[in-house]
Amino acid sequence: MSVIRFLLSAMLATTPTSCGSGPAFPFNDSLNATTAFMGDSITQFWRLPDHNLGISGQTTAQMLDRFNADVLGHGFKRVVILGGTNDLSFHQSLSNVSLNLDAMAAMAQGSGIEVVLCALPPISGQNLSDQVTYANKEIAALARSRGYQLVDYFTPMAGHPEYFIDEVHLDKLGYSVMETTLSRVVTK
What we know:
Elements: H1 3-14, H2 29-33, E1 35-39, H3 41-44, E2 51-54, H4 60-71, E3 78-82, H5 85-89, H6 94-110, E4 114-119, H7 129-146, E5 149-152, H8 154-157, H9 172-185
Parallel strand pairs: 1-2, 1-3, 3-4, 4-5
Helix pairs in contact: 4-6, 6-7
């Protein structure tokens, strides 16, 4: 286990995800109970999801490889897909991010599962801001063209280094912002 993963696990195991007064719009427990959260380490270290399918270090291609087994046929009503950070960090093709997200979303929709796509949070310190902006435009265009809900994690987190414990991973305040942002979009 890497030092970052160990520290994240220790920090998140001992601290609540909501800060101070908590999120303005806490994510509904009944919605959480029927929602799968597919992603990478940002999802894996998030304490909110009842059905957390985040795996640290995974690209969208790796998420796609396990999507059928992990999401389909488990009775989920919706899937929240947050992926692409590792594609960018590992310098994978940007076009593959939207292709892989589209493939996952199509499988879910074909199985009667509501799809919620997520814009990537900011990545600092790796000179990837242009790639994150491009990927988020592609994710938003995909959501619009297919009629999926879109949760924009980038906008409320941009310019807020206090939401992160490193260049990518969130602290409890950052996760509180994610929960509030999600709760404004996924309401029923």
